[in-house]
Design a protein that fits this description.
heterotetramer, A alpha+beta, B mainly beta, C alpha+beta, D alpha+beta, A: alpha+beta, OB fold (Dihydrolipoamide Acetyltransferase, E2P), four-stranded mixed sheet, 5 helices, B: mainly beta, 2 domains, five-stranded mixed barrel, 1 helix, 16 strands, elongated, PNPase/RNase_PH_dom_sf (chain C)
């Protein structure tokens, strides 16, 4: 019922993470290069023809473009990313969303498919009844359509797979832990679906069926107990991996899920610090075995 | 009507209810109106006031509770409100909502009238300064609750718009068309989005002015 | 603590002369509960003010005490006297406080002369907490969705405090709200009870109220409840002192039974209010 | 018109978060299986460390999921209150710093801090919890005042419980110096501090109460609510439970209401849970004490 442990008994989470040090770590103000001919990317500044870092992070080079990827940052959107956002404000012709980015993201009324099909003409009534479709607190999955000049993201949900999210559980992790993949929507074999938002918002819900997604309807019926168990276990696996700074994608999550079942852990056990490290170690071992 | 609890003065024609008092079963026959709510299959009173029972055209019975005092009103979507313009700029006008329907508010609520909601046709050609001036009294419809600042209003109907306006000289002007008003003293014409007011509304407005 | 320069502040070292009163202070600090019980009640189970343990003090209610307010009420429960004024619904001024639902704003204030010790003009910690309790209790009863974006203000001023002020405030506030025709799901009736080791005293006076004292050998406590009689729901519950859950159950029962007895009284008062209003309206109409 | 009153209200307890209707429904329907796999009466894991602040007479840091609380107790001499000449006293102060959540910035956290503070005071007041006469040095003239300063480092829900556990741990480790009253010439008493810095006494904290928050969700109630669960609930109770399973203070929280029966059952559950929490906490504190000087973990993690 209650588990109290002393700080000295709690293992360090970072023992699990990959111990190989990244190659080119810099801190703000450190010199990256004196050579000219490079292009200045994010996280850098130019002074006296030398390139310096302006954030702490890893230096990345794409052709002539040098940028520093910060160790910890808010979500830095790219066009085409799948994101999950929460509506924070309904204003004229647009919704504002929290997507863990620096600025509130925007979902324009014209970037959503309103019920009634593509050809439906948007009228003034739609503008006034925006709250009926999406209101404050609602979660949506969406794609980054555009990036405004100030860096704010403009989203769209004009595809059947995007739209309002129904029952389930949201986990927030650092965006850098989400591995970019072909698809971020997974129907997992354990009986639940997971949407890995590039912005670090992970949505776990009962298995999605292709035909129902994309609308504005929320299913408020009780989720069966078995589905709930799968969702809770997945949730705890995701938080466990995230705490140990392990990359998150369908395979790593499923490994963690299977490992936790094989080890005979109850769902709530996965909240305990020692079990978290244990799971993370098991997942790493699994990957190492697969490599060989 | 079957059950009244603690209703002692049935002899004096009117029945007085108090908040939380059970009025009747919430059956198909009865509809709960103003001042009531439904809980556990009963229509309950949420005000202290007189129970009013009216037969509806469809033979159902409407149960309402009317308090002696003026009702507790706040503007809600769809209501016609009377407002005073406080500020005008090219995109919108700010106003203070003074009355909701027939009821005078004790304290004003803030409202906003956007340029595109001023009239129903030729929305693009609206010029705010030619429609409203500060201190004009307008009739408007509440479109939505709006945001934290203000209610969103609209005058995009013939019957809505400026009803009382004063000329630069300070006399109340008379409408001379749906876009103009004229000062009876100086004969100067000023531009307004004039409401087409039917006579009974005018008398109402006058009463209100007198009350204020 | 900010000091209000417009008000006359007493010297900091000033204290109530009542502290100098010769009393068996030392004895009182560590008395056994049996003795305590003897102090509050005689051998025939009669309290100092001639009440039986389960008797409440006489209750007096009146509405329309403040003509400017939307609604108001006055309550007298023995020597505990307080006024409540209700204003609004009015617009919420601060943007940060914006909420789509209606809101309640409650202020609970003791008049400086209301207690044995002089109270400050500024709201002190206790008053802030009482305000919060009052708000949370009334929010459960008021139909907040009837006035979106707006707030209703409920101000309580305690004129004289002779025990159970929160209980009286709850009854008074719900009466004032109802007389202001603010829609409510139900009335709220407040009541308090004092627990002595073997006895429960309903509606305690200041002397009977539980005070944090030392070394009580047995359970002793004070309970204040806000009860919505028709809905059978508790919207305020504050307990101080030591009790077992079983004892708390017993106390709750006594208190809710008392609330059910008070309900018709409050209803009657409201009915009279409405009748009076109707009568005056009739007169106005005749005059026209 | 026919909406249940409970569904219309948001939380008023602490930093508000937004949830969609469906998420709320998901939490509501949890059948003794909460989103993180716990049953209704499970706490999240708690991590505890005492004695981190060298300048304080007693200190502790307690982490319950994302709620992080640091408590320092300072012992000072003062004159007793005129109403209670034979007792020392405890003074609580809660600081909801803006570090915990941006909403606490400015005066934002003040109300919450006030509420917690007042409730702690309430639950410590009765004679059953802590013997304040132990803190008297010289009747009517000098006594010990324990300033209990509570710093909320991070706010992740269930603050009442977290704070109370941290306060109890800090009080457990608090060392009160031995002081002797030497009478000089018969009239002016003089206080003499013991020369040995290890000559200290400790308070008996066996009966010091733990707070148990029970939030009502649907027809059930649960302990240790997450912020999401707090958001779904309109009412609950905070119950102070002493080591001897007795209830020393109760408050209803939230803007909803409770049926008398469910309230009584909540109080009974709270007293059971509180007793277990108290027991485990005391066991752990004793364990840490007997383990002697281990490496302090501190804040470097």
């Amino acid at each position: 019922m209650v588990d109290i442990r002393l700080a000295s008994e709690v293992p360090l989470f970072d023992i699990v993470a990959d111990s190989t040090e990244p190659k080119h770590l810099v801190t703000p103000g450190s010199l990256i290069t004196k050579e000219t001919g490079f292009m200045r990317g994010h996280g850098t500044y130019m002074q006296d023809d030398c390139l310096y870092a302006s954030v702490a992070g890893v230096v990345e080079r794409v052709n002539q473009l040098i940028s520093v990827r910060p160790l910890k940052s808010r979500y830095h959107g790219e066009i085409g990313d799948v994101v999950i956002g929460r509506i924070t404000e309904v204003s004229q012709k647009r919704w504002k969303l929290d997507t863990n980015a620096r600025l509130d993201s925007v979902l324009l009324l014209q970037s959503v498919n309103l019920p009634g099909g593509e050809l439906r003409r948007r009228s003034a009534e739609d503008e006034l009844s925006m709250r009926q479709y999406l209101k404050e607190g609602d979660l949506v999955s969406a794609e980054v359509q555009n990036i405004f000049n100030d860096g704010a993201l403009s989203l769209h949900t004009r595809s059947m797979k995007y739209g309002k999210l129904s029952q389930g559980c949201l986990v927030k992790v650092s965006p850098s832990l989400i591995r970019r993949q072909k698809t971020h929507f997974h129907n997992l074999p354990c009986g639940a679906s997971i949407i890995m938002g590039n912005n670090g918002f992970v949505w776990i819900c009962p298995t999605l069926h292709e035909d129902v997604a994309g609308g504005f309807v929320q299913n408020l019926e009780t989720v069966p107990h078995a589905d709930r168990q799968a969702i809770s276990r997945l949730r705890n696996c995701v938080t466990a991996l995230a705490q140990c700074k392990m990359m998150l994608y369908d395979t790593s999550i499923m490994h963690a899920y299977d490992a936790s079942i094989n080890a005979g852990f109850e769902i709530k056990d996965l909240l305990l610090p020692d079990k978290i490290t244990e799971i993370a170690l098991m997942v790493r071992k699994q990957f190492e075995m697969e490599k060989e | 009507m079957t059950s009244y609890e603690n209703s002692t003065n049935t002899e004096s024609k009117c029945i007085i209810s108090t908040p939380g008092q059970r009025l009747c079963l919430a059956e198909d026959k009865y509809i709960g109106g103003v001042g009531t709510y439904t809980r556990q299959g009963y229509i309950m009173s949420c005000l202290a006031g007189i129970v009013k029972i009216t037969a509806q055209p469809d033979k159902r019975i409407l149960v309402e509770v009317r308090s002696g005092k003026e009702q507790t009103v706040v503007p809600s979507a769809g209501d016609i409100v009377t407002a005073r313009i406080t500020q005008v700029n090219p995109r919108w006008a700010r106003c203070a909502i003074l009355c909701v329907k027939e009821m005078v508010l004790a304290e004003p609520f803030r409202g906003q009238l956007r340029k595109e909601d001023v009239r129903a046709t030729e929305k693009d050609r609206v010029e705010m300064y030619k429609c409203f001036r500060p201190n004009d009294i307008i009739l408007a419809r509440v479109l939505s609750l709006g945001d934290a600042h203000s209610y969103v209003l609209s005058t995009a109907e013939n019957e809505l718009g400026v009803v009382i306006a004063y000329s630069e000289e300070g006399t109340p002007m008379v409408p001379v068309g749906w876009q103009e008003m004229q000062c009876p003293k100086t004969y100067v014409k000023e531009m307004r989005k004039v409401a087409k007011v039917s006579p009974e509304i005018i008398s109402n407005e006058n009463n209100k002015e007198a009350a204020n | 603590m900010p000091v209000d320069s417009r008000r006359l502040q007493g010297p900091e070292s000033a204290f109530s002369y009542t502290l100098l009163e010769k009393k068996d202070a030392n004895a009182e600090e560590s008395i056994l509960s049996a003795d305590l019980q003897k102090m509050l009640i005689d051998s025939n189970h009669v309290r100092k003010d001639k009440r039986k343990p389960t008797d409440a003090r006489p209750l007096f209610l009146r509405t329309g005490i403040i003509s400017q307010a939307k609604g108001s009420a006055y309550i007298e429960q023995g020597n505990t006297k307080l006024v409540c004024g209700v204003y609004g619904p009015r617009e919420v001024q601060k943007k940060s406080d914006f909420r789509l639902n209606g809101q309640l704003f409650c202020e609970f204030k003791f008049a400086p002369f209301s207690c044995q010790k002089r109270r400050s003009h500024q709201q002190d910690n206790e008053e802030l907490v009482l305000s919060g309790l009052l708000r949370e209790a009334l929010e459960a009863a008021v139909c907040l969705h009837h006035f979106p974006k707006a707030q209703v203000e409920v101000n309580i001023m305690v004129i004289e405090n002779d025990g159970s002020p929160l209980a009286a405030a709850l009854t008074c506030a719900s009466l004032a709200l109802a007389s202001a025709s603010i829609p409510m799901y139900d009335l709220v009736i407040g009541a308090a009870v004092r627990q002595l080791p073997k006895l429960l005293l309903l509606d305690p006076t200041k002397d009977e109220e539980w005070q944090p004292k030392l070394n009580h050998d047995e359970n002793n406590s004070n309970l204040t409840v806000g009860f919505m009689p028709s809905m059978q729901q508790i919207c305020a519950y504050v307990h101080e002192g030591v009790s077992n859950p079983e004892e708390l159950e017993q106390m709750l029962k006594i208190v809710t039974e008392y609330c059910l007895k008070v309900q018709p009284v409050v209803q009657l008062c409201l009915k009279e209010t409405v009748e009076k209003m109707l009568a005056s309206e009739g007169e106005n109409n005749d005059a026209e | 018109m026919s909406i249940a009153p409970q569904l219309l209200r948001g939380p008023s307890l602490m930093a508000e978060i937004l949830l969609s209707e469906a998420e709320k429904a998901f939490i509501h329907h949890g059948d003794d299986l909460r989103c993180d796999g716990r049953t209704r009466l499970d706490y999240r894991p708690i991590i505890l460390e005492t004695g981190l602040v060298s300048n304080a007479s007693g200190s502790s840091r307690l982490r319950l999921a994302n709620s992080d609380v640091l408590v320092g107790v300072k012992v000072e001499l003062a004159s007793p209150l005129s109403e209670k000449p034979l007792e020392g006293r405890l003074e609580f102060f809660v600081d909801c710093s803006a570090n915990a959540t941006p909403e606490f910035e400015g005066r934002g956290g003040e109300d919450l801090a006030n509420e917690i503070c007042r409730f702690l005071q309430m639950s410590y007041m009765s004679g059953d919890t802590i013997n304040l006469s132990e803190l008297s040095v010289l009747a009517g003239q000098q006594c010990w005042v324990l300033y209990v300063d509570i710093l909320i480092l991070e706010c992740g829900g269930n603050l009442y419980d977290t704070v109370s556990l941290a306060v109890k741990s800090a009080l457990y480790t608090t060392q009160i110096p031995s002081i002797k009253v030497a009478t000089m010439d018969g009239d002016q008493p003089e206080l003499e501090l013991s020369e040995d810095p290890y000559d200290t006494k400790r308070l008996n904290t066996q009966n010091v109460p733990c707070l148990v928050t029970l939030m009502k969700i649907g027809n059930h109630y649960l302990v240790d609510p997450t912020p999401e669960e707090e958001c779904c609930s309109s009412s609950g109770v905070v119950v102070a439970v002493s080591g001897s399973k007795k209830i020393t203070a109760v408050r209803k929280i939230g803007s909803g209401s409770l049926h008398p029966e469910s309230l009584v059952s909540m109080l009974k559950t709270a007293s059971e849970v509180g007793a277990v929490v108290n027991k485990i906490l005391m066991k752990k504190l004793l364990e840490e004490e007997t383990a002697g000087k281990t490496q302090k973990v501190g804040f470097m993690r």
